[in-house]
């Protein structure tokens, strides 16, 4: 947060005589460098003492003026966005986060607001614009995406505040004026353990072991792709996560601090991995666990190809997914399916452990490596209709012990 400054007074010689100057440091809006600036307060004859000069400074409210961001009212959103994208802090973000922020800034924020003066932005106008992009208003974006656009805008504005380009608190006040629903009607397809077993029966190596690994651990695909054989601790029954592989790049930074936690590896899962270790051509410590044959082991396999070539066809054969003649995909209950991939297994794991296996939520949270238990319970766990009916039936038998209407 920028410190409030009072400036300092100095008497200087000018042609018209000796005058008081109020000097202060201002931030150059284009490069963030500090520059000394001056404001003429008056002549020494009018204000013979420093105390008298400070009274004039207060009367003219010059301290408020010098604490306004330099040139803030003249800066457009595209200038603030350029400042953020070129800042060293942006370069330290994960590659995926950089990609997301650039996409949101260039394809949404600047496409609409590039030439608007930042201080002229109004919450209601931004809210109306976001609503126009929503599916409810004929647009193409879901609530979570709209929330992400708002979030990235706030990041850009807060960086501008931090370096003196905008008044402190501007972003918070603007954000409070923007009310937008970030919910989605998306509901992940949940596989029961029995359905997962059937899906696995329709797959061959290495897709079957890879899918079992995700189903049993809840690992994200990028984390699985980043695994090397040296990361598997056979003696201590755990898997260490040291990197991820995403968009053709290796990144040492994982999604969250919690994501770095060691992953449990039950002896049964270890036996499947050991079997694959014996089969693969790439079993050296620094080889990828699921190396690409096409790339001669230099790269991991590609996730979307594994989904389209193995996981989805197996799910169709297992009856988890149904494909209509017009190409529409539905789940086993006939509900339309928009997305189906390895991430569904992560949701399925959380659901099975809590609702079927009755595991302690804290244990499940740690297995999922979520920072908050609310993420595990609210976003990743959902009961099936059969479980809800059974729970209701159990309670009804306590209401009506003989099981018959009176």
Topology overview:
Blueprint: E1 8-14, E2 17-27, E3 34-43, H1 50-59, H2 62-66, H3 77-86, H4 88-91, H5 95-113, H6 123-133, H7 143-162, H8 170-177, H9 193-201, H10 207-217, H11 221-225, E4 232-233, E5 238-239, E6 244-246, E7 249-251, E8 263-264, H12 267-279, H13 303-317, E9 321-323, E10 329-331, H14 342-356, H15 361-368, H16 373-379, H17 385-399
Describe the structure.
This protein has 406 residues and is mainly alpha-helical. It has helices at residues 50-59, 62-66, 77-86, 88-91, 95-113, 123-133, 143-162, 170-177, 193-201, 207-217, 221-225, 267-279, 303-317, 342-356, 361-368, 373-379, 385-399; strands spanning 8-14, 17-27, 34-43, 232-233, 238-239, 244-246, 249-251, 263-264, 321-323, 329-331. A three-stranded antiparallel beta sheet has the order 1-2-3, with helices on one face. A hairpin with a 6-residue loop joins strand 2 (17-27) and strand 3. Helix 5 (95-113) packs across helix 7, helix 10 (207-217) crosses helix 14 and helix 14 runs antiparallel to helix 15. The radius of gyration is 30 Å and the shape is elongated.
């Amino acid at each position: 947060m920028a410190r409030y400054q009072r400036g300092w007074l100095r008497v200087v010689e000018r042609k018209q005589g000796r005058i008081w100057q109020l000097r202060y440091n201002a931030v150059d809006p284009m490069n963030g460098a500090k520059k000394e600036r001056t404001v003429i307060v008056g002549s020494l004859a009018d204000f013979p003492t420093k105390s008298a000069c400070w009274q004039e400074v207060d009367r003219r409210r010059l301290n408020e003026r010098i604490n306004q961001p330099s040139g803030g009212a003249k800066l457009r959103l595209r200038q603030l966005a350029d400042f953020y994208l070129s800042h060293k802090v942006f370069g330290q973000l994960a590659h995926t986060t950089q990609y997301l922020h650039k996409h949101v800034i260039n394809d949404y924020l600047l496409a609409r607001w590039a030439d608007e003066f930042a201080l002229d932005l109004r919450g209601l106008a931004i809210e109306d614009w976001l609503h126009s992009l929503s599916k409810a208003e004929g647009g193409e974006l879901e609530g979570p995406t709209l929330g992400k656009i708002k979030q990235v805008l706030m990041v850009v504005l807060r960086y501008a505040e931090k370096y003196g380009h905008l008044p402190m608190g501007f972003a918070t006040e603007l954000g409070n004026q923007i009310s937008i629903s970030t919910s989605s009607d998306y509901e992940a397809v949940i596989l029961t353990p029995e359905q997962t077993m059937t899906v696995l029966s329709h797959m061959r190596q290495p897709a079957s072991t890879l899918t079992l690994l995700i189903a049993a651990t809840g690992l994200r695909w990028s984390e699985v792709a980043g695994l090397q054989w040296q990361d598997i601790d056979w003696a201590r029954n755990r898997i260490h996560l040291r990197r991820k592989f995403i968009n053709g790049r290796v990144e040492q930074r994982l999604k969250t601090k919690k994501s770095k936690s060691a992953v449990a590896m039950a002896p049964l899962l270890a036996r499947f991995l050991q079997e694959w270790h014996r089969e693969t051509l790439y079993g050296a410590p620094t080889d990828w666990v699921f190396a690409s044959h096409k790339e001669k082991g230099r790269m991991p396999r590609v996730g979307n190809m594994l989904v389209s070539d193995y996981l989805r066809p197996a799910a169709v054969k297992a009856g988890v997914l149904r494909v209509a003649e017009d190409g529409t995909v539905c789940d086993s209950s006939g509900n339309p399916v928009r997305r189906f991939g390895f991430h569904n297994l992560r949701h399925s794991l959380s659901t099975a452990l809590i609702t079927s296996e009755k595991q302690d939520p804290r244990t499940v949270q740690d297995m999922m490596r979520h920072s908050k238990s609310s993420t595990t319970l609210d976003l990743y766990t959902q009961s099936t209709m059969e479980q809800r009916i059974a729970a209701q039936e159990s309670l009804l038998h306590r209401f009506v012990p003989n099981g018959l209407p009176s």
